[in-house]
Amino acid sequence: MRSQNLIRLSGAVALCALSLGAAHAATGGEPAAVVQVDVAPCLAAAAADDMDKAGSACASVIDNEKTAKADLVKALIARGAFYARHDQVDRAIADDSRALQLDPTLADLFNARGELWLKKGDKPKAVQDFGAALKIDPNHEKAKANHKAMARELERIGAQMAVAGKPSFNCRSAARAVEKAICANRELADLDREIFASNARVIREARNPAEAKALQREQDEFIARRNAGFGRPGYDLKKAMQERLQRINGVDQY
After folding, report:
1. How far apart are CA 222 and CA 2, in angstroms?
2. What is the C-alpha to C-alpha distance for residues 193 and 28, in angstroms, rounded to an integer?
3. How does pLDDT run across 38-53, given as a tens digit for each residue?
4. pLDDT value of residue 107
5. What is the Cα–Cα distance from 239 to 190, expressed in whole angstroms?
6. Which distant-in-sequence residues (6+ apart) come within 8 Å of 130 by Cβ?
7. How many angstroms separate the Cα of 109 from the Cα of each of 8, 45, 58, 82, 136?
8. Over the stretch 196-232, which tens digit does the pLDDT of each residue have?
9. Which pairs count as long-range contacts for 134-142, CB under 8 Å and 24+ apart, including other chains?
10. DSSP string of the chain?
11. Share of the chain above pLDDT 90, in %
């Protein structure tokens, strides 16, 4: 039995040798050269913002198993930036994430992905990426600015949460029906506080005392209309407060 197995094994080895010999003969006796994947068309198309070529040119590099690691990272970064410019945020994050898995030393890319997380509204992940960029390069100017801005924003959010549901005035001393209604409604209380804060800001930023006085008079008139209108048929307190906030901040900022 053992001798039969050896005979079969010897035959298989001989067949393999013959096959290799044939392959070498077909190529002049030299082993086949490894084809180098060219990343240049991907980088050029992405840099030129060529919608027709960037996707396919980069995919041919990224999806090719023979692509060298360094070229794969370059292609992923290029396509990710291309997607980001065209507001395809999820695709851009996916490419940046894959590139960072291959090379986690890229401070610029951590910062870029942080900005993409910010576009999606994911502030914790944005802060994490800005921090990662700074850990790699403590002098990264964009990451420092982004991280500082996010720290301030998170501090502001924390402060807002601390006073959430509380209006600009003391509810214990609320005497008017409209004030009691605002105290009893979390959304109205938040609106009242935002109106008060926004009005204080525009007065502080006024160009001169006369302008500041006019702005405060406008706020006083709103309060008077609010107090007089509340409880009357057709009066919408929430709508009136939203319109006042919009008036102070401007349509684009509300």
Report:
1. 103
2. 84
3. 999 999 999 998 888 8
4. 95
5. 14
6. 110, 111, 114, 143, 146, 147, 150
7. 57, 20, 18, 13, 11
8. 988 888 898 888 999 999 999 999 999 999 999 999 9
9. 134/107, 136/105, 136/106, 136/107, 136/110, 137/107, 140/107, 140/108, 140/111, 142/111
10. -HHHHHHHHHHHHHHHHHHHHHHHHHTTTSPPPPPPP--HHHHHHHHTT-TTTHHHHHHHHHT-TTS-HHHHHHHHHHHHHHHHHTT-HHHHHHHHHHHHHH-TT-HHHHHHHHHHHHHHT-HHHHHHHHHHHHHH-TT-HHHHHHHHHHHHHHHHHHHHHHTTT--SS-GGG--SHHHHHHHH-HHHHHHHHHHHHHHHHHHHT-SSHHHHHHHHHHHHHHHHHHHHHTTSTT--HHHHHHHHHHHHH-GGG-
11. 55
Q: Give me 87's structure tokens.
A: 């507001």
pTM of the model: 0.51
CB neighbours of 49 closer than 8 A, spacing ≥ 6?
A: 82, 85
Angle between the N-to-C axes of helices 209-229 and 237-249, in degrees from 0 to 180, rounded to the nearest 10: 170
Question: What number of residues does the chain have?
Answer: 254
The two structure tokens encoding residue 85: 């410019």
The CA radius of gyration of the chain, in Å to the nearest whole number, is 33
b/e burial code for range 6-20 (CB count within 10 A of at least 16 → b):
eeeeeeeeeeeeeee
Tokens of 142: 């964009």
Closest C-alpha among 184, 194, 202 to residue 163: 194
Structure tokens at 169: 């005035």
Whether residue 27 has pLDDT greater than 60:
no
